[in-house]
Design a protein that fits this description.
This protein is an alpha/beta fold. The chain has 13 helices and 8 strands.
Length: 296
């Protein structure tokens, strides 16, 4: 297994492509947008530069990693010779089903089809593939090159052989694979998202402010990042989508997104990527922080 296709050049997709390429795999990075592919490759290059600066890799290893990645805007062409396809598109059920229908028609029968979904049913995704035993979940954590965990999600029909192959492959990437069964949110988000949602409810109910809530969780629970800041980094739209999937899947009101979260998503205040969420990430704020550092 040396040819890996990755669909989606966003935050997760470029991180997955980076990780495979750095470990010697030939990667076909696919996105319908040339601009997204350029941004994805720029991100990979910058992240590799940081690793060179920290002397974790050499300049030669950086170039080898970049040389291992080829970009495509045509999915059919990009997946033609892949032994494994990892879908890392937007967390939208209909989009993922559309992609997997296309993969079913344009990959070899023994090509393993994986989804990086953080909450959507692998069994549902596999239902549009003629041989669903080859479909599995590979839920990487962000940032992918740094985080060790990979949630390996078995769909109802995922074969033992495919599961074993993906577990072993994850270990070759210097990751720690953990096998879980296919239920909404899996393990990571089934526990994480209700915590984030409860933090938003705490803010919504006026118990404490953003800074205070995050400080309690960081200093009191030894979390490296407060839940509201973490939500900003994940993307409030993504958090909202995952909660909706769990709410629909379990029919349990405890998973219903907080009204404040829903309103913020509707208003386009979705965190780091929009420049504002529970915190302000605008250029003016960045300039204020830099000015404060130099004046202190």
């Amino acid at each position: 297994m040396k040819n890996i296709a990755v669909i989606g050049a966003g935050t997760m997709g470029n991180g997955i492509a980076h990780t495979f390429a750095q470990n010697g795999y030939k990667v076909q990075l696919i996105d319908i947008s040339e601009d997204s592919l350029k941004k994805g490759m720029d991100t990979i290059s910058k992240n590799l530069d940081r690793m060179v600066a920290r002397e974790k890799i050499s300049e030669e290893q950086k170039q080898e990693t970049l040389d291992n990645i080829t970009t495509y805007t045509d999915i059919s062409e990009g997946v033609e010779y892949a032994s494994l396809v990892v879908e890392a598109a937007t967390e939208n059920t209909e989009l993922k089903l559309k992609i997997f229908r296309h993969l079913d028609q344009n990959t070899a029968e023994d090509t393993i089809l994986a989804s990086n979904t953080s909450s959507i049913s692998i069994t549902q995704i596999a239902s549009v593939v003629s041989n669903p035993e080859r479909v599995i979940g590979m839920h990487f954590m962000n940032p992918v090159p740094v985080m060790k965990l990979v949630e390996i999600i078995r769909g109802y029909n995922t074969s033992d052989e495919v599961t074993k192959t993906i577990m072993e492959l994850s270990e070759k990437l210097n990751k720690v694979p953990v096998e879980v069964n296919d239920y909404p949110g899996f393990v990571a988000n089934r526990i994480l998202m209700p915590m984030i949602n409860e933090a938003i409810e705490t803010l919504y109910n006026g118990v404490a402010g953003v800074y205070e809530i995050d400080t309690v969780m960081k200093l009191g629970m030894a979390h490296p990042m407060g839940p509201l800041q973490l939500a900003d980094f994940i993307g409030l739209d993504v958090c909202h989508s995952i909660l909706e999937v769990m709410h629909e899947g379990f029919k349990n009101p405890k998973y219903a997104p907080c009204p404040l979260l829903t309103n913020m998503v509707r208003a386009g205040k979705i965190g780091v990527k929009s420049g504002e969420g529970f915190y302000d990430y605008s250029e003016n704020k960045k300039a204020e922080k830099v000015s404060a550092q130099f004046s202190s």
